[in-house]
Design brief:
With about 140 residues, the protein is an all-alpha fold. It is about 70% helix and about 0% strand.
């Protein structure tokens, strides 16, 4: 049966495996462009840029590119700090909270839309971002 399904998909020119969000967005080049534009927007936004005042942004961009590649279904392995560990000091010392997370998720969506992502892919990306909200906010 598996062979028959495989042959049917090939004959009908169907991709038997749906593409991941990572692939639909355009792969590594798209994630790289998105992260660079995303951080431009964050650093320009007075509502959230204070959280990055003492951050090595070159390193931050590299980590975020790897994280989003994994989160969006790419094939690399994320070995960075967990979300709670990475954000704990921001929560404790700078009052990182839901209103800030809302802005970050909004900026991610705006970034992806600006780069040509369709509404469904933007919704999926922001859903993924919101799925780690409790860990980012250490709750």
């Amino acid at each position: 049966a598996a062979i028959a399904n495989s042959v049917r998909d090939e004959v009908l020119c169907r991709d038997p495996k749906p593409k991941s969000l990572y692939e639909r967005l355009g792969g590594a080049a798209a994630v790289d462009a998105a992260v660079d534009l995303f951080y431009e927007k964050i650093l320009a936004d007075k509502r959230v840029n204070q959280f990055f005042k003492n951050t090595d942004m070159k390193k931050q961009r590299r980590i975020q590119k790897t994280f989003l590649t994994v989160a969006f279904g790419g094939t690399v392995t994320y070995s960075g700090a967990g979300m709670r560990v990475a954000h704990q000091k921001l929560v404790e010392n700078q009052d990182l909270n839901d209103s800030h997370m809302d802005i970050i998720v909004e900026l991610l969506g705006v970034t992806l839309k600006e780069l040509g992502a369709d509404d469904g892919d933007v919704a999926e990306a922001t859903t993924i971002a919101n799925s780690i909200r409790d860990d980012v906010l250490c709750r």
